[in-house]
Amino acid sequence: MATTVMGSGFALGEHEVTNEALKRVCDTSDEWIKERTGIATRYYVADGTSTSDLGVRASQAAIADAGLTASDIDYVVFATMTPDYYFPGSGALLQTKLGLGKVPTLDIRQQCTGFIYGLQVADALLRAKAAKRVLLVGAEVHSGFMPWRDHGMVFGTTDARPTAAEYEFNTRYRDRTVLFGDAAGAVVLTSSEGPRGLLDVVLHSDGQYAEKLYVPSGFKFRPYITEEMIKEGRHIPEMDGQRVFRVAVSKLPEVVHEVLDKSGLKLEDISLLLAHQANLRLNEAVQKALGLPDDKVYNNIQKYGNTTAATIPILYDECKKAGRIKPGDLICFLALGAGFHWGAALLRA
Ligand code: COA
Questions:
Q1: Are 181 and 43 in contact (CB under 8 A)?
Q2: What CATH number does residue 23 fall under?
Q3: Claim to verify: residue 26 and residue 169 sit in the same structural domain
Q4: Residue that is last in its domain, among 139, 159, 192
Q5: 177, 192, 207 — which closes off a domain?
Q6: In angstroms, rounded to a whole number, what is the distance separating the alpha carbons of residues 218 and 165?
């Protein structure tokens, strides 16, 4: 028996946001963003749409794609770093909005690697017969941590403009804010007989890097957020971008080799690499280090930016629906993100 994907789907924030639109709130340029990251557009939710709402839309698409209805799902694993509330997690909210009944929901928080961790968790649940059909969701509303006070300025739906002080404050975070978009991706997983399915997962974490990419507020502080902290921007992620980049360039190719070795497979066996989308330049460096040709790699950061836990299921769904994943293909999922957590998984389509 192996864990197979029955269906997949994704959803995007309601507003497309171009690089030009971000110039209304901070000092940046289309050239800089494209040159350093590859990103041309990303999507932000409309005011009021939450992470669980996006998760619901992606899940409905995945459940329909699987030819199932909500009552067929008996477990939810929800990966996000931007939950609707500090607590509870978004899994229970999604369960109720989708009308799944009282099935268990498990929230996991491995950021960009959330989906790959989720695959291993779902696989273990299925093997342990704790579930028959697991809905694995990755969803994020990053626009909630953007420094500007009014998203209407970005959407072009208001005449308001940032004050000089706000513009300066927003610009302080431009190396991060331009990267992220809001989205959700979901898959329905089950156990099937036959050669298809999840072959292996290799995961790692290293907490020595925790403060290289993190939000410096939380329950370590009393109270956990103050007006002073907000003025200091401590509700916005801190990121040592160059350090993240350097660690990722070295760890990502390594973990691909590790998962291949574990499965007794070779690089040439990979049909398609679906790597987390944090930076196109980073993915190009990883592709080069692995020596994979362009037709074995798919990137979509140009359209969506970095969507953290949503990225990998979106890549999968786009490739599946575009006919880039054929029966028998070997798909390699790959990610590194805050924690740091990183890992790779092999799926026989
Ligand atoms: N627009 C215009 N200029 C910008 C900018 C923006 N959005 N962001 C930064 N800059 C400027 C900086 O102020 C700096 O200017 P200076 O040379 O005058 O001081 C210059 O560009 C270089 O900034 P730097 O932050 O060193 O750029 P970089 O080449 O490291 O690129 C990242 C920044 C974030 C794109 C890059 O480090 C990266 O992608 N890192 C990995 C991120 C990642 O994987 N995160 C994990 C998420 S899961």
A1: yes
A2: 3.40.47.10
A3: yes
A4: 192
A5: 192
A6: 26
19, 279, 283, 306: the catalytic one is: 306
> Per-residue pLDDT tens for 123-175?
999 999 999 999 999 999 999 999 999 999 999 999 999 999 999 999 999 99
Whole-number pLDDT of residue 110:
98
Same structural domain for residues 213 and 314? yes
Tell me which residues of the chain have a pLDDT lower than 50: none
Atom 10, ligand 1: residue with shortest CA distance:
175
- Of 112, 142, 283, 319, which residue is the catalytic one? 112
Would you say the pTM of this structure is higher than 0.85?
A: yes
* Residue 179 sits in the same domain as residue 166: yes
Q: What is the pLDDT of residue 332?
A: 98
Determine if ligand 1 sits within 6 Å of the CB of residue 242. yes
Number of domain units in the chain: 2
> Which residue of 28, 175, 177, 301 sits with most ligand 1 atoms within 8 Å of its CB, as the best mutation to test the pocket?
175
Give start and end residues of each alpha helix (H) in the chain: 19-22, 30-37, 51-65, 90-98, 114-127, 152-155, 164-171, 174-177, 227-231, 241-263, 280-290, 301-304, 311-321
